[in-house]
User: Which sequence fits this backbone?
């Protein structure tokens, strides 16, 4: 009796396959013989294999209410067949957002060996602690469900030792939707954003790289964007650029955005923010003075050393280096401050890029 195994019938998926061959006869002493069958596929296709990192997203425990913090989840398919499924975000303060000007969809479709990043936002509307989750449900046979835990905290006021106050220049411009922009068409959205950035750069006389965080929402076409502070020689500051933009939109004799439909209006959406350096666990970091590295390093140590020993009565005293006590600096940059700085030395600032972007 020839017994065959068809790898095609199981999709050429790698793995061990078991079966039985049962022989029944009229032999009165042995009417049934059962033979175990085993076959292995080792050079075929691997099943979908989901990999999600990290499995815990810890946002700041001191996020100012009604402001948004963002962290990234990386989704990978380590298997040989396409990974398909969906994800859901649970928790009122948490949501998935747009990334790289492409609309995030909750449907997962990852070819073998590819990755995808997903931005998760945390926006507390009240003070207190918040928790949530991102749940992935896919066709991975070993891990059909993977859960990422989300935590964060909201506060009414962010301030005090180690915080960085700044102003972020933002604007909201509303356009007529005469072109019937398809908000499900990622290419159309990206093209609209590029035209907007190009028109803004030409109008304001700034480099296009200073127009960041562009988000398009539906209704009339509403564009929200940020103008960074960094300016090359001869360029207007962010505040000056916003004033120029407001004047240009108000002037009906010229078209401020020649590549786009007519504007309906502009709103100054600038924010006064207080930034809090924090570690991966969302805890505040003290001693990140120079912001030249992504951690509290030697440049910060040398900066601190320049102020060590100064008191509030000294002309060169700087409260930024008076980090102890945390809640109320005592006007003396001494050994208590040094020991607290030493505790933070070498700590990586998890939100360093976010802070630098806000300060640009």
Assistant:
């Amino acid at each position: 009796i020839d017994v065959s195994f068809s790898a095609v019938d199981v999709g050429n998926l790698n793995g061990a396959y078991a079966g039985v061959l049962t022989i029944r006869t009229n032999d009165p002493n042995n009417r049934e013989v059962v033979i175990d069958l085993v076959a292995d596929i080792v050079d075929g296709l691997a099943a979908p294999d989901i990999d999600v990192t990290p499995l815990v997203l810890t946002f700041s425990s001191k996020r100012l209410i009604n402001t948004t913090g963002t962290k990234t989840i990386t989704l990978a398919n380590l298997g040989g067949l396409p990974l398909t499924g969906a994800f859901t975000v649970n928790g009122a303060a948490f949501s998935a957002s747009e990334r790289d000007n492409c609309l995030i969809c909750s449907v997962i479709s990852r070819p073998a060996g590819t990755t995808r990043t997903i931005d998760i936002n945390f926006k507390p509307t009240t003070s207190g602690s918040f928790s949530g989750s991102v749940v992935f449900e896919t066709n991975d046979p070993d891990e059909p469900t993977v859960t990422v835990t989300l935590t964060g905290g909201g506060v009414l006021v962010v301030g005090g030792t180690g915080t960085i106050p700044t102003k972020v220049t933002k604007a909201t411009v509303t356009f007529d939707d005469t072109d019937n922009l398809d908000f499900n068409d990622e290419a159309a959205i990206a093209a609209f954003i590029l035209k907007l950035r190009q028109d803004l750069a030409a109008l304001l006389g700034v480099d296009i790289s200073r127009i960041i965080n562009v988000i398009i929402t539906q209704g009339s076409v509403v564009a929200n964007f940020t103008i960074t502070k960094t300016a090359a020689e001869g360029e207007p500051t962010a505040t000056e650029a916003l004033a120029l933009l407001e004047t240009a939109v108000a002037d009906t004799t010229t078209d401020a955005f020649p590549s786009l439909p007519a504007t309906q209006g502009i709103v100054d959406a600038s924010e006064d923010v207080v930034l809090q350096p924090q570690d991966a666990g969302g805890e505040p970091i003290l001693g990140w003075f120079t912001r030249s590295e992504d951690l509290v390093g030697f440049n910060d140590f040398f900066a601190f050393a320049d102020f060590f020993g100064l008191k509030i009565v000294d002309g060169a005293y700087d409260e930024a280096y008076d980090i102890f006590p945390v809640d109320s600096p005592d006007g003396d940059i001494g050994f208590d401050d040094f020991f607290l700085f030493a505790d933070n030395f070498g700590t990586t600032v998890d939100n360093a890029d976010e802070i630098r972007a806000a300060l640009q």
